[in-house]
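pinging the channel bc i need a second pair of eyes. not urgent but kinda urgent?? the chain im working w is below, pasted from the shared doc
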Amino acid sequence: MTKHPPQTRGRAVPDPPDAAEEKPVTAPRARPSATALAEEPRPQPRILVVDDEPHVVQIFQDLLAQRGYEVVSSTNGDDAIVKVTTGHFDLVLTDINLPGVDGLEVVRAAKAADKDTCVILITGYASTTTAIDALRQGAYDYITKPFDLWETAKAIERGLESRFLVIENRRLVTILEEANHELQRHEEILSRMVKEATRRITSLYEAGKEISTSLSRQATLAVIVNQVSKLAATESSLVFLYDTDAGEYVAEAGSGVPQDRLREFRFGNGVGLHGQAVRNALPVRCGNIEETVGVEPFLSELEASSVMVIPLLSNETVLGTITALGRDGRRPFTPDDQEVLTMFASQASIALTNALLYERTKELDRMKSEFVAVVSHEVRTPLTSIKGSLELLGDERFHVLPPPQRELLSICQANTERLINLINDILDFSKLESSKLSLNFESVEVGKIVPEAVDHIRNLAAIKGIGIDVHMEGSAGVIEADPMRVAQVITNLLGNAIKFSPEKGKIEVWARGTDDEVIVDVRDHGKGISQRDMSRLFQRFAQLDSSTTRKAGGTGLGLVISKGIVEQHGGKIWAESATGKGSTFSFSLPRTREQSASSAEAAGEGARDLIAP
């Protein structure tokens, strides 16, 4: 047979390999299960050779058998159509010109039987156009007679590989579709889980916000039982707290239960389902109370069919329990219900602990205020007598004292006055703290009250050689206020300025006004206040110089009292300072009492907030 150069038709054809290196082509494997991912060995390819020339058929049988292919032959088109219709072939190699039906009919029949079957046509030069038409109908390739065996073998290998890739791609697409379907199923499940988790977290967040709105013990308990009913989807719930006097856990709040009998519902440690939850500090869930032995009697009284008890834990102690009750017609409580209520119980424990601590703090604060008031009053009474006696001793109409004794008497009088001022500060602070500081409003000329307050303290300033300049603007005018308390504020600010002013320094007092308010500034030229200490200015008992050798005395209540008085008038007080440049303390007061009342109400009892811990 004459050899001709390979017909590449635009394709790059590799050089023929050495016989020693040439390997048989592996056939495409049979279609596996769509879920099989591992590679499997391909079965032996089946090839149908169709040609009416026996020697050509023999040549192809010898060529293909050497490469490990299973070869079936046919010498006419009718027989070939029967074979491709009834059998399975990976590749069909057919001549176009055949006895009976031609090769194009074989192509159509092979593609109808298996669209993935690879068909290669054998044609002469005269029928090349027909072969191209066959390519349009699904044939993979064609070779021309006379043909090159090596080129023909390569064309067959490429055809089989093409079939394998098509089958493999379809298998992978099927796997991908199944995986995608499975992914969608998991995504739907995950989406439902995320939605449910989001709902729970949102519910817990809203419950946490509501439970933190009040420090009142009873209000907190009411919120807890309402939230338990919502979170557990039940109509009845209880909160038990430990009663030290009774030595039992007593119901302190309930929803959907008789309120007049609430405190009758109680249990001891280790008794019943509640006692088990307290003893083990773990939740207890019972789905059928009627069939459970040893339940608390009140559960039957409340007609509960199921119950869930969640302990309220605080610092490894059990404050009490949250109890959700299910009645007839309600499904038993689920682990999800238990998980939600357990998380809520953590929030409830914190809120209850804070409420209980707040109640105790208020009680201790009340007792402290009463104690301070009583002690201060009892101390002031003898001090008043001492002060009067010292004044009599210093009166030259009755006693003429030599200079040394007069100096000692002056020291006693000064320290007595100091003690009285300290006691007055403590009493005023106690009244402010309990909102019992009374104010007597009247019309006051600012141009009168400010100079009088300054004159009252000039002697103290003169001891350090400090001068006080007063600047009264005509806009200061008249305000409705308690003149004694306003003068007290000015005196406190001036006393503070004197303490921290250098000897022979200067203090300036300014008073000015607008249509709605009056503003008073007290400025010193001392060392100023650091930014770190500015936040401590109006804290009770705060001393910027807290060392044991500090020169400035006092209780540290002057600014706190001043702030409380100003805010009870509906005004504001503030400070501006810079280290080395002195300080300016300012306060503003509304013109009228109506403005004072509305400002104080808008401030939300600012004086009380100021001195709160």
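so The chain has a mean pLDDT of 81. and The first strand starts at residue 46 and ends at 50. — does that match what u expected or am i reading it wrong
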